[in-house]
Amino acid sequence: MKTMKIILDTNELMAQAQFRTPILEELAGNELYILEGCVRELKGIANSKKKDAPAAAVALELLKKKDIKIIPDNGKVDDALVAQGKRGYAVATNDRELIKRLRSHDIKVLRLRQKRVVE
After folding, report:
1. How would you class 54 by CB atoms within 10 Å of its CB: exposed for 0-12, middle for 13-18, buried for 19 or more?
2. What are 5's strand-pairing partners?
3. Lowest mean pLDDT among 18-22, 24-28, 48-52, 87-91
């Protein structure tokens, strides 16, 4: 199978911890990226008192352990994800509104199904 360039959205990385889903294992062999804005979002959630704070902290640790490259961006994260998708990146997300937007531009979307499988 041909390797893909895949950008991970914040919620996709957090799902790894929230649902104990081996998302990164399933995507192994592909080039994985994350936007700087997603890293900022993860840091903000990890440093908050929100119930998702532990999952965000785990996601930040995964970024350090795995070979996930950070892409600089400016502005809104969703806009940057669409822009990168137009450059040929697939986008891994579970955000319904973002998925609709990506598909309207014929951008390949990878999403978690039944909290287990990335398709």
Report:
1. middle
2. 31
3. 18-22
The domain in which residue 102 lies consists of: 5-118
Q: Which residue has the higher pLDDT, 23 or 35?
A: 35
Q: Which pLDDT value is given to residue 113?
A: 65
CATH number of domain containing 22 = 3.40.50.1010
The domain tally of the chain equals: 1
- For tokens 């669409």, name the residue: 82
29-73: per-residue pLDDT in tens? 899 999 999 999 999 999 999 899 999 999 999 888 887 999 998
Contact between residue 93 and residue 81 where contact means Cβ atoms under 8 Å apart: yes
> What is the pLDDT at residue 26?
82
- Supply the DSSP string of 21-55, one letter for each residue: --HHHHTTTSEEEEEHHHHHHHHHHHTSSSTTHHH
Give the separation between CA 3 and CA 61, rounded to whole angstroms. Answer: 24
Length of the chain: 119
